[in-house]
UniProtKB/TrEMBL annotation:
Its EC number is 6.1.1.15. One of its GO terms (molecular function) is transferase activity. Its main location: cytoplasm. This is Proline--tRNA ligase. It comes from Anaerosporomusa subterranea. Pfam families: HGTP_anticodon, tRNA-synt_2b, tRNA_edit. The gene is proS.
Amino acid sequence: MRATQLYAPTLRETPAEAEVISHQLMLRAGMIRKAAGGVYSYLPLAWRVLRKIEDIVREEMDAKGGQELLMPIIQPAELWQETGRWDVYGDEMFRLQDRHNRNFCLGPTHEEMITALVRFDVRSYRQLPLMLYQIQNKYRDEIRPRFGLMRGREFIMKDLYSFDRDEQGLDVSYRKMYDAYTNVFSRCGLTFRAVEADSGAIGGSGSHEFMVIAESGEAAIAYCSVCDYAANVEKAELKPIQQMHETQMSLIEKETPGTKTIEEVSAFLGITADKTIKTIAYQTEKGLVLALVRGDHAVNEIKLQNKLGCLQLELASEDAINTALDCVPGYIGPVGASNVTVVADETVMLMSNAVCGANSRGKHYLHVNPGRDFKPAIITDIRLIQENDPCPHCGQAVKTARGIEAGQVFKLFTKYSKALQATYLDENGKEKPLVMGCYGIGVSRTMAAAIEQNNDEHGIIWPAAIAPYHAVVVPINVKDNVQLELSEAVYSRLQSAGIESVLDDRNERPGVKFKDADLIGYPLKITVGPKTINEQLLEVKVRKTGETTFLSLADDYITAI
Ligand code: ATP
Ligand code: MG
Ligand code: MG
Ligand code: MG
């Protein structure tokens, strides 16, 4: 590629709207342009990087037996109604209607679609296990799209779904994907950690997030350098701190009768500290009801899809679930039973969108009437794990870091297959639900994360595997024919050796070209100037280390590169 032809309109100034470095640098390097909040065009340099990440992802998915397909982005509401998620998904779902007023959404994820796809065609245990994936745009109307490609409303995701006969099979598939993800992020040249994760809104239990370590990361992780423990700090353990006595409860009732706001209830429960999540457990006649409440509203907004931002009920039995569901509408007012999904067999989760989306300032407790609806039993406190807290596995002091969630793997078990009646016949001819897992990688977010992790004051420093080009050849003066011819020769030798290169044949001052080269972040910069002509030496500078070497034109400099 010649720089005179390359469509990479670089900017000298940092656009004011860009808060994080990856967003600033992608705008400045002429890689992306904004179409609307959270919606971007990928220019040629960005598209090359994205395709490289996609290729790595494809190779690793295929290596584990994944088969690529492509499902529609437009999804009919009926599918989502079958699993109950049409109501549950909330404002994050982009919804649309066709000319006949039929409802559709733009796929934020594809569990429903893929389960409906395989339920017709997978009949027998002989067809299992099965792993299907796609790489495609996803649509989520995030409340706060920001940080460029990190939190877009249209973004590229790889999503793979596994189908197994039983939980042992799921364990195998899950392990394969965990390993594949480790390979993907290692091959992309990223420093990352797989951490135990909250299984969040998608459901299921058993989940890991792959966190690219970067200061700008929205997630906090805790890890132990002695054992292998690593977790999203929000997957904190419950630590009972206090029994709630009847008298305290009646006090709430007495002093603030009727409808309560979270502030009122918080005042009694002492929920004030920023990083504290309170769990209130209510003993109902038939089981234990556990409600998570978070005092920190700002975090609520960010974590809408997260356990922390929502109300969770953990129940002992099916009876208890029913009891709780009966209680729910009176308990949180605007949320109805249709907003409840069964996450795992013993857990019911109220989706955060319904709870906080409508009341994003934390008024979960509208119309709460604990005396009437529930009898309080225990209060427990979850404190987020902090630096130097004892490791839950080995007791050594944990460390903390910030991370960008670039991927996540989930065990879904039979949540979707049961809801959508996706079954198979086992060896004995018995009908069983498919046991599922789902596995996502944010391809466009991974590109941004790579920049967050690899940059300096001059620009991007691409890991070689995902760099848009490996090298740039810069003739100091293109008006000097000898320099230009030599540059052409070097460029064509690089190209034929498979080193993807750009020849900066623009009639610009060398300073301008060097600045652009650093900004765009080519791993190698090869300068052709008077020294090259006079001493027959090519100057090769490594972007990452700043190290400069001079290679003799007489030698096999391509191999040396
Ligand atoms: P987050 O916690 O950041 O909102 P998520 O947990 O909702 O992400 P998943 O449903 O696990 O996301 O989707 C799989 C992957 O898709 C994520 O790990 C992330 O890399 C990517 N992703 C999710 N939301 C976005 C977004 N708005 N913009 C870009 N990438 C995203
Ligand atoms: Mg999300
Ligand atoms: Mg997440
Ligand atoms: Mg996730």
